[in-house]
Amino acid sequence: MPNDSIYSSDGLSCKEKSYIMSSCQKKSNRFVDLKILAAQAIRNKKIFSISGSSSAVRRALLERGWVEKIPANKMNLSKIRTDISSKTKIQHELERICLSNFVEKYDPNFVWRTRDERRDTTIDMNKDCNTIINKLQINATWTSKQGLCSSIKRNYWYHIEDVAEVSCPRSYSTSDSGDIEGFVKDYKITACTSLLKWILSMVANDRPVFVATGQISINVMVFAINRCKEYLLRKQNKDIDRLIQPISIRQWDSFLKKYYCIIAKDGVFQTDKGIKLPVYLSYSKFLLKEMHKYRPQLSCEGCHNIWIIKPGCCSRGRGIRMASKFGVIMNLLNKANTKYVIQKYIEEPLLIYETKFDIRQYYLVTSTYPLIIWMYKDCYLKFSSQKYSLKNYHESIHLTNNAVQRKYANCEGRHTDLPHNNMWDLNKYKSYLNKLGKDDVWDTIIYPGMKRSIISIMLSSQDSLSVSKNRFELYGCDFILDKEYKPWLIEINSCPDLNHTTQVTAQICPAVQSDIIKVVIDYASNPKASTGRFERIYRQPVTMPQYGNAADLSLRGYSLPLDYFYKGNIEVQEMYEDTKIGKENDVKEVRKLLKEAYNTEMIMKQPEEDFTFPDKKEKDTCTHKTLSEYEMEVTASAVNKQLDKLMERIPSDYSFSDKCGLKLNPSLSLNPIQKVCSVTNLHSLVKNSVSRVTILDDLIKTFNFSKLDDGPHGKGSIVDYGPIQQIHFNRLNALDDGKNVTKPNHVEFNNLTQVVKSATAEIVSFINNKEKEYLSKI
């Protein structure tokens, strides 16, 4: 045979075919068997074609009596000439080529393509054929970084309680100008929440935050508190009837400089001259709890305001940058020619032996309409080669991709239980959870959470898919766990790498491919067949529309009874307990009380130094209400005034010990919510009013110090709730004075509690009388 034909890309030559046939005919019985096998494959439509190695898929199909049709560009004898030395292997390869030659005139019924050959158009899918292909008809939009970002934006339309709920870090795409503006706002409010979290954590761990030698005004903290309150007002739609003054760029720049000084340069605050620190801490904790409803990532995003910038056109961790300063991020985006996705970095992930990891989870889509999703019950963990730290943003610490980590050697001092190849299988991870006493975490939190995220993303991306007949595709997801074991979806990969890079992948990847054949071949023909480790997690319900004639449309109505309409006279009676209002027609006084009742001024006056803001002037608005609404609101206003009078008595008679060094300001309102203007909501008003005296009790449960944070003192961040001593605030004020801090007088606290109980009883009695009086007037 001539050497130039050995590496031919156009298939076998006539001489090569003759050589193969003659070699097989030497074993006449085997040659007959091959012809029979090929004829059965043609008749039963069991011809397949595979691009790439995919030996597990080839093996699974051959076991089921399928015949492989080798692509023409790979039909040659180079393997026999260069790689095979055994006569048995040579004979096996000759028989494989011979079978392919028998079916070369027929289209394959099963095609397994690689990433580069997904757009192969040799098969006309517009015709009614039974060819099964392992790629969907169009590119999966959710597997690109921009596409996943868009899917997350519209995901709330497809939310299904306990079925489709995605947890994904906040992401923004530079291809959308609106997203850039959204990122700027998000970055600024994140800086505010990060500062409050840092302060609460440092105080909870008895760290010196407010000292006499501090250079930063406490007004910086107040600025962050006010911005968080404004954020909540917008989220709760309470900014409709009130004007929130915009913050200038100069004010934001000044705040961010102080924020960087505190977080990155170990800056501390000046001492609290107004003795309002307990109020600020209590209100900060309240704001963070309320904001967590709208920002779930608040529990694991840390205090450093780090963002990860991913180029949309790259994969395998290439081109990824991390930054925390606003100017650095914006300069990178402005200078770049490519499109980026900006994603909030999870600064407090769950670690294993001080090392970051993520979970690679596979899922399979076998139908787009209706949507059918299968999830693989097995997975594996990918570790970083270095210990986790926020002091350094190097990729070897923060990017767990195997393509990145295999470039670096494992760090010194690494725990011996961590794998040398940086991968764990699921059984190893479950064994680790059992040692921690968390053996039920996988089945109750992690696996169900990943399942809900996958279903949610697929539902939100279904509109971009077309109806694909006999098509399926495998995807690989990457999840990161937070300290509550909640999975966060980072990205989804199409054409995931199924090569044997480590011992872990050498076991799971062939099993995945083999089980795919069980789903798309065996289960498709027999619903009782085994699907291996694949579990069907979602099948979209399909409702067949029922069409009728126009005559079938009808409108049915029911007449109202005569006594439905009230025909009596409505008696208007005066019911005003406030001495300022003599008649119901005194509209000005009513409006004044309504304005007081709906007062939404901030609980703390805006600081004058460092941050100056324009005074807020509320405009009078003409509101038309019924007389009953006026009566109810005026009654509520009277209740509010009575509460104020009772509460003013308490701090005046019973205050904290001077030795403790902490007094409450009786004139300072601690109620973070606007005054109640409804009789039906008075019980919450009592609770909020009593909280004026029990500020320190409210701080008993606050934030623990995170061991994962870096810095000389360890930058604080919220992890979970834990104890905080009441003496902390006094100790902070006496740090630099050299005074001995004594414990608070518990007798005074007990006496104060008795007064609170007495005042509360009087308040409740007053409220009940008001409610009875109001109800008697209706």
Automatic annotation (TrEMBL):
- The name this protein carries in UniProt is Tubulin glycylase 3A-like
Gene assigned in the entry = LOC112052568
Please name the PANTHER family in this protein's record: TUBULIN MONOGLYCYLASE TTLL3
Keyword annotations from UniProtKB, A to Z: ATP-binding, Cytoplasm, Ligase, Nucleotide-binding
- The answer to whether the entry has keyword Ligase is yes
Q: Spell out the PROSITE patterns in the cross-references.
A: TTL
Q: Which domain of life is it from?
A: Eukaryota
GO BP annotation list:
cilium assembly; cilium movement
For this protein, what is any one GO molecular function term?
protein-glycine ligase activity, initiating
* A GO cellular component entry from the record: microtubule cytoskeleton
Pfam families given in the database record: TTL (PF03133)
UniProt xrefs under Gene3D superfamilies: ATP-grasp fold, B domain (3.30.470.20)
Compartments, as annotated in UniProt: Cytoplasm
What the entry lists under SUPFAM superfamilies is as follows: Glutathione synthetase ATP-binding domain-like
